[in-house]
Amino acid sequence: MILRERRNTMIGVLFYIFFVLLAVLGCTVLEGATGIFQAIAALLIFLIAVVFLVSGVIISVIEKTGGKK
Fold first, then answer.
1. pTM for the complete prediction?
2. I need a surface site. Which of 4, 14, 26, 63 has the fewest CB within 10 A?
3. How many domains does the chain have?
4. Closest CA to 60 of 7, 2, 1, 3
5. pLDDT in tens, 32-60
């Protein structure tokens, strides 16, 4: 039981780290954007970062409520 809780915590932290890394990458790309396509690419990176954040929260909530029974 304790190992499952640790694994779930590690998964949540991993998703949060991916979110932060992608957000920083998106900021870097957006700062250096010289054209509309580079700006769109930066916004898509931000969108992927938000997907990681939301999916990490969803996984944490599912695991805390017990998941499938």
1. 0.74
2. 4
3. 1
4. 7
5. 989 999 999 999 999 999 998 888 888 87
